[in-house]
Amino acid sequence: MVAPVAVQACRHSSLFVGLALLSCAQAALGSTGLPPAPRALADQGTVRYHLELVINGRHSGQVVAVNARDGRYLLDAALLRDAGVRLPGNPVGSIVLNEWADVRVDYDSASQQLRLQVPTDWLPRQRIEDPGLLAHIPASSSLGALFNYDLYYSAPANNATPYLSALLEQRAFDGFATLSNTGVYNHYFGGTDNPGNRYLRYDTYWRYNDEQALRSYQLGDYINGALNWTNPVRMGGLRFSRNFEVRPDLVTYPLLRYDGQAAVPSTVDLFINGYKASSSDLQPGPFAISNVPYISGAGEATIVTTDAQGRQVSTSLPFYVSNTLLTQGLSDFDLSLGRLREDYGRRSFAYGDTASSGIYRYGLNDQLTLSGHAEAAADLQLLGAGSDIALATFGTLSLATSASAGQGDSGQQYLLGYSYYSRRIGVNLQHIQRSDGYHDLSSLGGYRLSRRADQVSASLSLDGQGSLGAGYFDIQARDGNRTRLLNLSYSRSLGSRSSVYLALNKDLADSGYSVLLQWVLPFEVHGLLNVGITRDSRGRYSERVVWSRAAPSEGGFGWNLGQGGGSSRYQQADLTWRTQNVQLRAGLYGEAGNHTRWADASGSLVWMDRALFASNRINDAFVLVSTGGYAQVPIRYENQRVGQSDENGHLLVPWVAAYHPAKFQVDSLDLPANVQVADVEQRVSVRQGSGALLDFPIRTVVAASISLVDEQGSPLPLGSRAEHLASRQQAIVGWDGQVYFEGLQADNQLRVRLGDGGLCQVSFRLDIHKPTVSQIGPLPCRALSGGSP
């Protein structure tokens, strides 16, 4: 046969080593006289590899099929897309990688890798975002009620009528909403100047916060929402508003953002004003950094990228972050409908005209936030529009205008504002101009708007030399009266402990001025010494020395002792005693020989978990910790010890911030050895104005280590299987016949299967109230007849 001879020559002759395999195949087929079979060009002389795909130095972890021919590499486009590569034109099927001008292909035979270097904009975009300084935990609350009280007794100087003032709040809550009522009861003890004993209601409302939608619904008394160019009023009715407070982990204003590209795997470090703020790993490709800490004002950011070979690229850019803006696409609103409150603080139920108001803000982009405002009543219509504009790195500009009609007149209001803050400098300017016919809802209550109001405030940080502050206020009333005030201040720390403060105030319409010079010296746990001298606008000087110490939050004593000089000879002294159940204060103040004496008791009574608790005053949210009935368990809140559980296993923590993911811990180191805690640390977020029951399951384990011996006194064999007959627990006998059981009873029986198949049984009694693991034995295990337990 001719064909085998041709093939054999191609296989063994060294002269044909450099020829392509295709030539051998053609010679073999040509000798038969048959035409060659048709085949695709890509398959001619093709070698298939299975290689790991490495893209721009990043190991994809994928092993892909690669066809190679004449130095060209073919790969399925779908495999590249699975690896995150975005190919121009979105091709389908096999593609020749070498045909892309911007792609470099290297075959590493030693590591069996196909290394690709592609343009960075072909790779997926990475977002390095801030997960939030606070982790989001859905808020919860339990069924309960509380009664807040603040009882203040005063015996005024000059033999005035003594009186008792009781500030009271009643609050009920569950897992849905909160119902609250506040008021004050005044009682006078005789005297001719007695205005009469009475109870005065302040506010009553029902409130529900929707944490998912960031909304609040309030029915009852409230203060409507306002902007920096509107005036809030008290109303009674319905209020529907955005509430960002339910998500303290969210940042509502635009933060610094940096866009860049990494050609190879790198790390990126972010420095804010020279201090390292974050560090993250980067994969090849474009990236955006927005994990900037919660900063506000002007500064400089430095972004440093470092690749695997240690090469660094540093980029610095100035920035300005304004917390008066809303991030792009975010909205804020407040809609109110009801009746205006009248004579608040003087009458309990005085409501005037029906009115409505609304505000709306929207972040059009990160540089512009638009706002609108509307008010309406029987004889008033008001519309306004405003904007907050970011001026690059030069601060924030605020513009607003509004017009009103009603009460037989019409008018306009204009606002121009500017603010700039940096690490060293702070400036705030505001000018409001109103025409005579301009009115808003506050005017219906008798409040007269000023015709013009100018406000300028500035601050300057001198680093280690202290800080300066200045303020100027110029207000022109509707009747033409003008008030101009100037304030200057300086403060500085003296070493690491004390500080000094100097302030000057002057009414520019008066020739006099007032000055305050104050020196503050702390004495760690022994209080704070405050020494000052003042000069009033008439040129009279007085000195004052105050030594004070705040009562510790966990309980203890605090005091306040003061002596003033000058013509008044002012004196003050009071003592505070704080416990877990109540805070008591008493003292006196006034001139020598003519003092006002007073006493105060404040706290809360809480009903929850079918029990009544006394606590310090609860202003917002609280947590009731339960240790499953176990007493004297130390409790920590945010790593600070706040007390221990009472005889029923409860501890009430009254100063928890609403919606904050608070951390609570039980200190298990002080617990007896036979006490087990399933979880020593938990985080809980509490709804506004309510309380949450936090359970720490703690149980007493009756346990014993039993030493078992046979009837001759020798330890039972290692590996024997013991069973507690009552609970059916099983355990392996260890060295020296030791076996350990939990969940034991006063009377116990163990049955043991020995290694040779024999059975024995032992009985013993146990003190279940013993606070430690009992050591029992050695106990003889009596042999049983029969082959099974």
TrEMBL record:
Q: Give the Pfam families listed for this entry.
A: PapC_C, Usher
Q: Which PANTHER family match?
A: OUTER MEMBRANE USHER PROTEIN (PTHR30451), SLR0019 PROTEIN (PTHR30451:SF5)
- Family classification: Belongs to the fimbrial export usher family.
Q: What's the protein called, per UniProt?
A: Fimbrial biogenesis outer membrane usher protein
Please list which residues make up the signal peptide.
Answer: 1-27
| UniProt KW Membrane keyword | yes
Q: What are the residue boundaries of the PapC-like C-terminal domain, all occurrences included?
A: 706-767
Against PROSITE patterns, the record matches this protein to: FIMBRIAL_USHER (PS01151)
Q: Print the keywords alphabetically.
A: Cell outer membrane, Fimbrium biogenesis, Membrane, Signal, Transmembrane, Transport
> Which subcellular locations apply to this protein?
Cell outer membrane
Instruction: Give membrane topology per the record.
Output: Multi-pass membrane protein
Q: Does the keyword Signal apply?
A: yes
